[in-house]
What we know:
Elements: E1 2-13, E2 18-24, E3 35-40, E4 54-62, E5 67-70, E6 75-78, E7 83-91
Antiparallel strand pairs: 1-2, 1-4, 2-3, 4-7, 5-6
Amino acid sequence: MKSTFKVELVAISDEQYKLYVFKNLDENNNSFLRYITTVRCPNWEGYSPQIGDIGYIQCEYVEAGEDYFNRTTGETSQYNYSNCYFISFIKETKKDNNKEFKF
C-alpha cells in the first residue's frame, strides 16, 4: 500500500540499502507513528533528501512474497522481506509572495 506523509528527515544510514528515518509531522510526539523508517534500494534514482529537509515522502509498505516488476530484468519477482520502501521525496519550498515588487 502506497502512503504519503509530511515529514522531516532526521537520520540516514549510508549503506548499499540506504535507510531513512523521517519524523512524521502529522503525528503528535507520543504517537506510535511519529517516526517512519524507509529503505531505498540501490538502483533507485531521483532526489536524495538531506538531514533536516522537510517535505512529502511517498513510500510503500510491502509483505515478503508479494510480486513486483523488476525493471532491470523485465521480469516479475517477489519481495524477500517485509518493509517500507522509499519511492520519492518532494522537498517543501517557501512561497515568495513579493516576487513582483522587489525594489
